[in-house]
């Protein structure tokens, strides 16, 4: 886990969780970060709001994987490397949906290491067998600066893919998730339809429009969102000196520590509610009459106004 | 003072039988003279002047240390609905001749026989509130603040917008009428104010883009006598204070969810009006936005607005003025004045001349007040109000706006002082305010005409957040001078409300469960009882066969547990409950 850099960024971004590949490009401070290829998620939050000083926590995929036992490996590509050439042939990385981490596996050269470049710039150095990086993707990658290899070898790039319940969930599983959604009172802020929006609790994230993947949603449900109304739902989150949440401790979060949920959820329940969000809410357009009845039950008066004319 | 206002003291007061079977009808005359029946608590604020002061003095400064629980009663209504995980209790019990009427958050009415030293359920009227329908558009909890009495009927409200009239003896619903429409975000949480043969009803929903109103229902004909919108429409006086070009007035807010007061001498109903909507996007609604954040005085028979006073014009903070106005006859600078006292969410306590709405004095009752430098001593307008501007920004940095979306202001958006009622002690001429000592952060979100407003969806133009811990106090103001004369600081904000008694005592409950009696002059704590459950309701007092009791509903409710609890470390541990406590010596 890298040290937590302190940096000034606009106040409007406090408490926002960004996925590495979706950082807003127009924010100059973030130009610091693409080089840190082992970082996958950024959580931005106020340290001292009145001074607009933000603490940026960087979350490695390792920390994410730690509490996510449902990651599966998927081979992306193989790259042939010859040590006496200056660089490998350029290659592209196309990642499957929900890939959260890359593993670099060297076959045929024990103890070798290399540098990874993209379009001539180093994006990761000293990569050894089984090294991990974040979600690097795109074109123009090359392997250079090979060390301790006596002959040609192969690098297999493997994506760790979040095999969430969402992908395998049946409709029955989602009904469990709906139960959790109600029990934990998610609709209290995100509304029954997940659209969130402004209100007395501040602006709750739109689960319909969010770009967060299942792993990130799970993280936010487990750990809450510092300096916002989103509470943490995992009983052991932030316990003692634990850095399982965003790589920070309760003490480091100080006043920005998220509040405790009124209802703690077991991991299975968290997976169920995440699956419900991903399957039944995320990516949907405007809420429909059918969705409303599915949530509230047949005959619910609050759905009448959505009834197709 | 105000006792002298009524020359026709009812001889019956002392003679009224205190048994249920011999209960007299609740006549208009009895309601007019409610303070002459201190054994009863006949109307929401105790009396039409809303003073919440009782002349009972059996429990007093010298013996309050011996106050104990006499009996308790567990209500239902704790279940959730809509966006709310549980119901809460914010009501004031009503007592009449040995019977008590209390409500739970979902509007069930419980009639208890309290004539023999206990509370036995006589009947429960369950109005079958549509919980999800209403609970999904209740901004601030599953609440019902109590009933009104009229003749042989109990008059109550439901969160889903109905006025329900129940037979006192049988508990049977005789008739009901839909007044508010949850389809457009309207709900009812306040207790009805019974004036003559009318029930006056206020509405909630300014966070959902309603256009607020007060409605008078004729309890004889079961028809509406009048309905007065708090946001004037085209052609009505005050409409010119909505200066946008997209009909912002139609969703302009101006809720009326706290029961008002009634001045029989002038035949005026005096009621506080809530915040404009959208709350934090004042640029959506340029102009002063009458009658939001105002006191309005309405002719009781017609609902015509006779005068108004606006506390926070073009409010960008959610500083509503929905709270009660206490009607006091007193001397100010040696002159007898008929005044109305109001503790506003904006942090100032005000005295207005209630014959004209003219400003008399205004005093900050909070420790920190940053949004304006003070009030104009002549007009009572905030010093940082700029009449040249259509959109007010007040002190720089305090108001969220489209160009500077984050504002930090003290008091925070919940006040100052929220709905929990104040009390006034005429012996000491002191006024007691349950205070939220707070600052918070408010963030603007631009609302788009024609797009952003959706029925039953929040229409707030942003939202608040807490950047620091929030505490509270009970603050006393000397009404003659308008000066703060005592402050009793509390760890948590005051969310319950006040009771003043002639025993030289002030009673109030705290959100972590402490129910306390304070010295009426010094505010020193004289007694406490730990309920260990959230207190969100005001205490009241009554007597049975000459024995004085203090009643209090205890049940975590209101907006705090959901929206503001991150500003009060420790309160997240409070569990919902639904209990009535009654104390006696």
How does this structure look, described?
The complex is a heterodimer of chains A (about 300) and B (about 575). With about 300 residues, chain A is of the alpha+beta class. In chain A, the strands form 3 sheets. Chain A has a 4-stranded antiparallel β-sheet with strand order 1-4-3-2. In chain A, strands 5-12-7-10 form a 4-stranded antiparallel β-sheet. Chain A has a 4-stranded antiparallel β-sheet with strand order 6-11-8-9, with no helix packed on it. The N terminus of chain A is likely disordered. The radius of gyration of chain A is 22 Å and the shape is elongated. The termini of chain A are far apart. In chain A, strand 3 and strand 4 form a beta hairpin. Chain A contains 8 helices and 12 strands. In chain A, helix 3 crosses helix 7. Chain B has about 575 residues and is mostly beta strands. Chain B has 4 helices and 38 strands. In chain B, the strands form 10 sheets. Chain B has a 5-stranded mixed β-sheet, with no helix packed on it. In chain B, strand 33 and strand 34 form a beta hairpin. The longest helix of chain B is centred in the first third of the chain and has 5 residues. The radius of gyration of chain B is 22 Å and the shape is globular. At the A-B interface, helix 4 of A face strand 29 and helix 4 of B.
